[in-house]
Amino acid sequence: MGDFWPPESDHTGQYALLVAMLLAISHLAGPWIRKGLRSQSTRVVSFGGGLAVAYVFLKLVPEIEEAHEYLGDNVHIIILFSFLAFYALESHFLNQRGQFESEGQEGAGSRRSFWLHVTLGWFYTWMIIFALPRDATDELFLAVFVSLSIGLHIVFKSYMMHVHHRAEFETRGRYVLATAPLIGWISHVMIQPSEAVFDVSIAILAGFLMQGVFREELPSYNQTRFRWLLLGAVIFLVIVLIGP
Questions:
Q1: For residues 176 and 30, what is the distance between their CA atoms, to the nearest angstrom?
Q2: pTM
Q3: CA distance linking residue 107 with residue 11, whole number of Å
Q4: Could you give the CA distance from residue 121 to residue 105 in angstroms, rounded to a whole number?
Q5: Which is nearest to 54 in space by CA: 146, 170, 181?
Q6: Rounded to whole angstroms, how far apart are CA atoms 16 and 189?
Q7: Is the CB of residue 28 less than 8 Å from the CB of residue 174?
């Protein structure tokens, strides 16, 4: 495409745009995906939890180890503060929303809480693509499974926002969130982050993703379908092992 198209970043795999597009579709099609999977919800949640856990340990942790070589023990501090910060922010927004509803206040304060929550979700989805490991998108088959694991994660997060914000999220929020992965891809390609920026981004994303996966997405013991959770983890493991 000549000089108009920016050169590929050292961290951007050739199927990164495909992953970004599939994640955008996950936001837009969330209501229909949830409706189609409703009858198998416990199996899907368990399967998605297995995929998400496998992604954390098989893709993010190796990236963290590489970041450790560059950032030293600081990488662990960044992950810890990222985990705590995003946990605190998300809990605050949800508690604030619950307080507004219990007091019958659905005005400016409630809308402000909604947009702050959407902003947090937008930044999170943007960073998933901005800090996406190159080897997760260099091979088509693996890129599709990465999209599936993160896509189910996004559908679950969207459902939680739908539960708390209802019509506001369905009519506006999910459309705003759908722009995040595409802008994340554009940002990465245009900015071409340095190794230091990329490693810090990976550490921040790891903290955010870990608190989401382990706090929300792993089903409670009485709702877990362990065979489906194990199947999700094993499938992701196999795809990683047979990848290039």
A1: 13
A2: 0.74
A3: 44
A4: 23
A5: 146
A6: 10
A7: yes
Q: pLDDT (tens digit, 0 to 9) for every residue of the chain, 244 residues total?
A: 333 334 444 455 578 888 899 899 988 887 787 776 666 667 777 787 787 788 788 877 887 777 777 778 788 888 899 989 988 887 777 676 666 556 555 555 567 778 888 888 899 889 888 887 766 667 777 777 778 777 777 777 777 777 767 778 888 888 999 999 999 999 988 888 777 788 888 888 888 878 877 776 665 666 567 788 888 888 888 877 876 5
Distance CA 31, CA 174 (A): 10
Q: How far apart are CA 39 and CA 45, in angstroms?
A: 12
Among residues 107, 146, 104, 128, the alpha carbon closest in space to that of 201 is found at 128
What's the CA gap between 96 and 31, in Å, rounded?
A: 25
**What's the length of the chain?**
244
Residue whose C-alpha is closest to residue 219's, from 79, 41, 73, 58: 41
Residues 118/140, Cβ–Cβ less than 8 Å: no
Rounded CA-CA distance 209/83 in Å is 8
Tell me the C-alpha distance between 165 and 120, whole Å: 14
Nearest CA-CA partner of 148 in 43, 41, 236, 40: 236
Nearest C-alpha neighbor of 174 from the set 216, 140, 125: 125
Residue type, 49: G
Q: At a CB cut-off of 8 Å and minimum separation 6, what does 108 contact?
A: none
Q: Residue 74 corresponds to which amino acid?
A: N
Structure tokens at 79: 């992950």
Torsion of CA 176, 132, 58, 200, to 10 degrees: -100
